[in-house]
Known about the structure:
- The protein has about 260 residues and is mainly alpha-helical.
- The chain has helices spanning about 1-15, 20-25, 30-50, 50-55, 70-90, 95-105, 105-120, 125-140, 150-155, 170-200, 210-230, 240-255.
- The mean pLDDT is about 90.
Amino acid sequence: MYKIKEKKQEYVEKIFNDSCLFEAEVLNVSSAEDKIEIMKILAKIIVRDKLKNELNFLYIKNLSDFKLSSLLNALFAEVANEWVSFAVEDLSISASESIEYIKNAKNANFIYSIVMDYIRNYNQYIFEEIANTFIELVDITPHAKSNKIVDEVLNSEFMTDKNILAMHNANQLWSKVKAARNTKNAQRSRIQIKISDKRVELHNTNLEEQKKEELLEAIGKYEQEEKKLKDTSLDNFDFALKRLKDTMVLSMILWNSK
């Protein structure tokens, strides 16, 4: 029992001295593509939940409430939680003991160094998620002048280069968002009609087994396509919105680099 515990301790020390090993074991990350994917997941967790009152325009009441200063600690907390889950589930270390490991200053600094690397190299995915919430805010407003934050953002440091934007006021932005929403809905409707047609065809009692399998495969393919489209942000349906989002992301990258 002592030898097992000793080996476990050695392995934990090895994990907290090798960032590649930590990422592979704790975060299931082994490539740049994996890092992008996990950053996209963390971006949704942080922007949509953990820091929604500071980063999510669907929840922010005043533009002065917006701040990026809590990002580092929020990311640290998420990575620390991943360590605790890994320690409990894979190493059979108690939750309390696994927390003690990250209270150790050396181990905490080790995790901070990993988090800082992610923020330096992959922060755009958090900023894109923030910009998405701004476009979503415009999307749910009943008319162009119904939310003061929209005007505030358009006239703030979020717009580092207004010359490249194809819209300069809330009314133009609102029109672009509604057009993008209509385009997205039209594309989704076309796929939904295809799914419905295939399901009607599937209910034909005289179908051969091979034909049924082909229809089920087609339905599955269309459903995946429709789900992907549902989750696609509105800037993908309008070039002007794409420029707006890119401008907001660039502004946040510049702020974060100072």
